[in-house]
What we know:
The complex is a heterodimer of chains A (435) and B (208). Chain A is α/β, with parallel strands linked by helices. Helix content of chain A is 42%, strand content 13%. Chain A has helices at 20-25, 30-36, 40-50, 62-67, 93-99, 101-115, 129-144, 175-182, 211-223, 225-229, 262-268, 302-307, 326-340, 346-363, 370-382, 390-415, 427-430; strands at 78-83, 119-124, 149-152, 157-165, 206-210, 239-246, 252-257, 278-282, 291-292, 316-321. Chain A has a 5-stranded mixed β-sheet with strand order 3-4-2-1-5. In chain A, strands 7-6-10-8-9 form a 5-stranded mixed β-sheet, covered by helices on one side. In chain A, strand 6 (239-246) and strand 7 form a beta hairpin. The longest helix of chain A has 26 residues, at 390-415. Chain B is 42% helix and 10% strand. At the A-B interface, helix 5, helix 7, strand 4, strand 6 and strand 7 of A face helix 2, helix 5, helix 6, helix 7 and helix 8 of B. The complex binds flavin mononucleotide, iron/sulfur cluster and FE2/S2 (inorganic) cluster (FES). Iron/sulfur cluster binds next to helix 14 and helix 16 of chain A.
Amino acid sequence: MSKITPVLSAAWDQADSFTIEAYKRNGGYQALAKALDMKADDVINIVKESGLRGRGGAGFPTGTKWSFIPQGDNKEHYFVVNADESEPGTCKDMPLLLANPHSLVEGIIIGSYAIRANHAFIYLRGEVTHVYRRVLQAVEDAYKAGYLGKNILGKGFDLELTLHAGAGAYICGEETALLDSLEGFRGQPRLRPPFPAIAGLYARPTVVNNVESVASVPSIIANGAQWFASMGTEKSKGYTLYSLSGHVNKPGQVEAPLGITLRELLELAGGIRNGHRLKFWTPGGSSTPMFTDAHLDIPLDYEGVGAAGSMLGTKALQIFDETTCVVRATLRWTEFYKHESCGKCTPCREGTWWLVQILKDLEHGKGTPADLDKLLDLCENIAGRSFCALADGAASPIISSIKYFRDEYIHHLENKGCPFDPVASTLFATAGGVK
Amino acid sequence: MPFTQEDNSLMDSIIARYPRSRSAIMPLLHLAQARDGYVTNDSINTIAAKLNLEAAEVTAVSTFYTQYKSAPVGEYHVGVCINTLCAVMGGDAIYEAVAEHLGIGNNQTTSDGKVSLERIECNAACDYAPVVMANWEFYDNQTPQSAKDLVDSMRSGNPIPPTRGPKKLPTWKENSAVLAGINDGRAGEGVNAGPATLLGINAKKEGK
Ligand SMILES: Cc1cc2nc3c(=O)[nH]c(=O)nc-3n(C[C@H](O)[C@H](O)[C@H](O)COP(=O)(O)O)c2cc1C
Ligand code: SF4
Ligand code: FES
């Protein structure tokens, strides 16, 4: 049986897939009508029963998160979509929104109805203009069709939906930094508790969910919790988007049940590029500790990846073959975290700076083997001791690369520089020499 | 350039999208860039007055985010992704080739004001690496040569269109207006998905 289960991606090959006409032709907005005929609490229960877990990285159960919103509190509630997608390697939400923005819009209306919110927001990273266009058009068309605004489908539910562009700051993907940014401040994380469910946007009860989590909701309402829960593994239910990038013959998006392995996904992606072999990969973006060719058969669900010492994260599978220098890769990711550190707390702000200095020396073959221990020591003082999870992410590539590739670091020292030819790892190298 | 009545009513319509006016800072800054190409002191003061804030509060926001520019960028702003995956797949070579070709460095603009260059972080298009962005439109699977051709086409006034984007590459100012939430009517242009996006469903069709 095919391992591929296209739900969100099912109609992506239709040229007009992003239009409201195509979405409705393919059954869109029927789940909305069904949900609005149900009690709000019943909608939450279906999502709970389906076992859907947040696709933004942490895997928190979506229905449970919705049930944390206090009801009857006479306060405004807000539903906020995290479309910041900036975790290095992560590239699923943007193609989803380009090809089918209405799946998100329909999910937002259902989610807002469930938590009794009358205003929802999409916080979309700012560096994707065409995605912004597609989502804006989808929102405008949903208003015109009576799916947004006052008295939606004549059922007495009102919802305003505002699209908001970010402006280039990775930290705004962290949900509390996102809320500060949306309130018109610098995007810096907040102390939790209180959690957004109690005091979120404008200090009101707020749900923050990832694009893919929300876009999955209409399919659950349409087909039932059992249908969704029949896919995946015991604690990681349903289908999800896996993104393959890097040294594979055919990179791209594959929608499959949670628990598929990299070996199976590689088969669909035409394998590692010809004449090469897998060296290291991330299971869910650069903040998740890297794996090697020893991890090809790990089930890619929350439990399987966790048991093997990493995290499922965003299911961004960045694949690197043996031409890639792991020290160079690690340094570059570390430079990213240094650049994106919001500066609020000292271990992260200063620590990432020092990590870059030491890694730079190591890449150039300067320093001593003791510097590796210094790096690990620094990581220990940064991860878990900072204000938010950005700092934990910064430590991940360093700790895991030293764990699996200590010899390669040492080789840089013995060699007095990087032994790799960067040209060999490029896309154009495979296409027959440097163009 | 003074703010016109039209600027003013646009600003009001942006503020009206939010329950609290301060939330409009970011789209108003995008709008400022649509007007002037970057965030001028005039814009800072106008936004502050509009939202009943101190100018320093608006500046604090504007300087936090890399997309807001404090000096003019080119009519076409080119970002080369140098995050790890793109860098390894050729982004480093592309950046070097383009910088040398244009004779400018990071965050600099050509003397004709046409093209500016920036090293950018992962732009959520890794399955199309190496990636170049121009005015924040996607140029997928680039090479040093294709990127040089791209900037040449910009300088000659007829830019190569994006891979997944509108038929014609809009200017920096035009795209800044889009990010402020002004619909330019181009959502229907361009492909709905690139080949990598369709990997899974195409494999399924092949019976995999
Ligand atoms: C530094 C950092 C960056 C993050 N970036 C994103 C992001 O771009 N998109 C996203 O959905 N979640 C991101 N998250 C996770 C969010 O904080 C939050 O957990 C998520 O949006 C919740 O949605 P979910 O429950 O649907 O997964 C990030 C977290 C951290 C610490
Ligand atoms: S850990 Fe880093 S990103 Fe997070 S709050 Fe502290 S300085 Fe900011
Ligand atoms: S690393 Fe370049 S787009 Fe993701």
